[in-house]
Amino acid sequence: MIIKPAISVISPDRMEQGIDLYLWGSPFEEIDLRKDCSNTIAYIPLINSHDHLISNWVPRAGNNRPYKNSHIWVEDMKESFAFQERDIFWHNNGSFRLEEPNSLILAKLGAYKSLFCGCSVVQDHSSNQVDAYYEAMPIVVPKNFRQCHSLTLGNWWGGETPEKEMELTKGKMPFIVHLGEGKDEITKGEFSQLKKMGLLRANTLIIHGIALTAEEISEVANVGASLCWCPSSNFFLIGETLKIDEVLKHKANICIGTDSTMSGGVNLIAEFLKIREHFPKIPTKEIYRMATVNAATALYLPQYFAFIIPNKCRNLLLVDKVERDPYENLFALEASTIQLLLVEGIPRFGDSEWMEILNLDENMYSTFRTGNKEKFVIGDPMELNDQIDEVLGYHKDFPYLPF
Ligand SMILES: [Zn+2]
């Protein structure tokens, strides 16, 4: 099947008008159709480089903000309304075996947060889970990574020592760690600790890095390591964020994460808007680069997650053209404006019209209305929400779900 969008944003540096895109994947092979999509703009789907899927409860937790460092918040948030309400549905017994029924429901809803804003991938920072957990997700949640929660608190949520975790990466997958999430002496000392432990390498993905100095940021760039920026969460918890001007000056690889809704914004588009609010000089295409190409580099994902491949499109985000400028159009993205989200050759979400065009198996999908559009989505997130409601005894509204 061939489609022809008005504009295709092949990469942050290449935009094409009116070219053919060949959709690739099992639903398309039998379909000999050419569809004019001149009311749309095509992008590579976005990548959310940092989240905790199990923690996408609301409202945000933080009764004693701003915190000097996030380690204080990790304890303090247990007193919050959100934590205690979530506890009714899923009690964290400390095992962090997230494939169990109620934790899996929560984690899947957390992944839908990223699906409904056009993501192909969300990185779930927790201890490594069994394969069945990752396979149950509605979009790609990479299983190839190793991690440490933070050097100060260690792997309290499961996993090996940070040195052992790094060894297990064999340099072929990211080593992910919260680092410098604060403005006090403890978080300021974490970067030198990282280096001393031999953990600053090309596959290191530093989450937050608020406390990093300009010199330390240049060291990150020199070894080819990556940084993940979570502006909403940083401003909410700490009142400061990463020195982004230094990051861009030194050309360190920088991607963007939402963090969970216990501290972050509603989704990745909200992070884009937060960046624009605080740093209006950063060009929109650079923000797009952070959420696509740079993220694929940081997470060790194949190239087809980074760029549109016109003659073999297995990942694609097709969005209603409501703004003339493609990046402005992306900043205006809502679930209702996503016509089609294709990930790994499988349609995940979009206008119901596509369900008929592609002759999709109705058993794999559910439908709902948002705005004035009827939508299809892989799996059944409404049912997941219902299961939570049943346990709570009332309706729980998650603002990242569009139904
Ligand atoms: Zn985090």
3D architecture notes:
The protein has two domains: 2-44 and 307-392, Urease, subunit C, domain 1 (Roll); 47-298, Metal-dependent hydrolases (TIM Barrel, Alpha-Beta Barrel). The model has no long low-confidence stretch (mean pLDDT 97). It has 16 helices and 16 strands. Strands 1, 2, 3, 4, 12, 13, 14, 15 and 16 form a nine-stranded mixed β-sheet that branches. The longest helix has 15 residues, at 101-115. Helices cover 31% and strands 22% of the residues. The protein has 403 residues and is of the alpha/beta class. β15 (365-370) and β16 (373-378) form a beta hairpin. The site of zinc ion has 6 residues, from loops.
Question: SSE layout and pairings?
Answer:
Layout: E1 2-11, E2 14-17, E3 21-22, E4 34-43, E5 46-51, H1 70-76, H2 81-89, H3 101-115, E6 119-124, H4 131-135, E7 146-150, H5 162-169, E8 175-179, H6 185-188, H7 190-196, E9 204-208, H8 214-223, E10 226-229, H9 231-237, H10 244-249, E11 253-256, H11 268-278, H12 284-290, H13 293-298, E12 316-320, H14 326-331, E13 338-343, E14 346-351, H15 352-357, E15 365-370, E16 373-378, H16 381-392
This protein binds zinc ion.
Zinc ion (ZN) binds at residues 50, 52, 125, 178, 207, 259.
